Amino acid sequence: MQQIHVVHNWCYLGSSTTLAQARKLGKAAAGFDADGYKILCRPILAEELPIVPL
What is the distance between the alpha carbons of residues 7 and 18, in angstroms, rounded to a whole number? Predict the structure, then answer.
């Protein structure tokens, strides 16, 4: 099963199983989360995972 994790401006918005669902998550996050930033930095900057613009 594939999981798509949605991030906007370094804020985690949620996850879904399809691109259509991911696009519906919106672009408004509750706020910046320093822990989330640290978790996201490593795979994104190491280019370990594909980044898909929504």
Answer: 15
Flag whether 28 is in a domain. Answer: yes
User: Could you give the CA distance from residue 10 to residue 34 in angstroms, rounded to a whole number?
Assistant: 9
Q: Which domain holds residue 15?
A: 4-45
**pLDDT by residue (tens digit) across 7-53?**
888 788 889 999 999 988 877 766 777 887 888 888 888 888 888 88
Residue 40 in any domain: the answer is yes
What is the distance between the alpha carbons of residues 35 and 25, in angstroms, rounded to a whole number?
21
Predicted TM-score of the model (pTM): 0.66
For the record, the structure tokens of 51 come out as 């980044």
Q: Does residue 35 sit within a domain?
A: yes
User: What is the count of structural domains for the chain?
Assistant: 1
